[in-house]
Amino acid sequence: MAVPRLSGDALAAALGAQLGGTVVDLRRLSGGASRVTSAFELVAPATQARALILQMERGGASGGKVQMERTLLEAARRAGVPVPAVVAMGVGDDLGADWLVVERLEGETIPRKLLRDAEWDGPRRALTAQCAAALAAIHTIDPGQIAGLPPADPAGDPLPYLDHLGEVRPALELGARWLACHRLPAGPAVTVHGDYRMGNFLVGRGGLIAVLDWELAHAGDPAEDIGWLCAPAWRFGGSGEVGGFGALDELLGAYADAGGGTVERARVHWWQVYATVKWGVFCALQASAHLSGSTRSVELAAIGRRICESEWDLCTLLGVVPIGPAPEPATKGSVTVPFGRPTAAELVEAVREYLETAVVERSEDGARFEALVARNVLAIAERELLYGPAIAAAHTRRLYDIGVGEDATLVAAIRAGDFDEGWEPVAAALAATARDQLLVAKPSYLGGTSA
Known about the structure:
The protein is 49% helix and 11% strand. The chain is α+β, with helices and mostly antiparallel strands. The strands form 3 sheets. Strands 1-2-3-5-4 form a 5-stranded antiparallel sheet, sandwiched between helices. A two-stranded antiparallel ribbon has the order 6-9. Helix 6 packs parallel to helix 14 and helix 11 packs antiparallel against helix 15. The protein starts with 7 loop residues before the first helix and ends in a 10-residue tail after the last helix.
């Protein structure tokens, strides 16, 4: 029988018993879809309080993932990769979920602060070379020595995930087809981090302090990590191709100088496209956790509307220009009979303004973050009420011009290779649809920012 997942005081008590001390100030941090991350202090007899991080699997058991990650983190430290030290781990015990505890290091992880604030100018300039050196060290780890390390990227083929979710995304299908038609010769198999990007770098005044979040590690091509770091999704509004902060030529040069070998730009580009398709699929997977009821979360729900960012990035990487002009919104005060005013858009606007001016200002930490996400979700709904009919009509016309009646038919044709020759008109139509979705989901993304 499964052990109930603990939280609050019960979790603190059980964790303290596991670690041989008293857990104080246990507080949840914003985290990813697969794990819940919390910070705490451990007070033990005759020792100073230790600042630590707890990561717990959302789904309970992880099938040995935490043991694999512990082994990998220890191997990474031996290889010279800056990582936090592992303190303890547990599998199938009374905490109710597999867990890992590591030391808590002081630094900054928030990409927008690191990319925009003047106080981080110095560390930002050092990051490209430091990230290259850390990546070269990661790639020296023999994947055969890490028990449980997946032999390839588990998300390597995105199409079964889309099929399982019932997601019909023609642009992602086109990206997957492009990858298949331009597949690269196999590269060397090394240990890859799998999520090497801004947000998973802990940065201090001297630059890179630690590489975090190794749960997606697997064996693969070293260019995979480089392409992921250079994917548009992880630039957070910064101008540098490398994570928003650096130049690709500098990164590749520093990587080679650190012993990582020569990686061609064309190879990085293929992996950038791969990363973009993969992140779009991941957005759908994360949203499905909310939609299925397994993890109800306004944050996960909002991520589902980020798929169009990946679709737009994909078109940009492939040099595709959208066809036709962007649609115009309806008037916010347009009345639908018999409802009158306030209209649905005006009601959503009122609630969004309440969140902005009342709830957000009175909230702190995690509650404030969730209120901000909720505000953004309402803004999306508000814009969809204004743009939705025009966007739907334009999309239907574009499908007609392509010669298909619905998205599912287009997806089947792309997957069958019907558009392998002369795919540009289809891509231009899908780029227009991605653009139109961004007018609802995140208009600032079209201006080259992700504010």
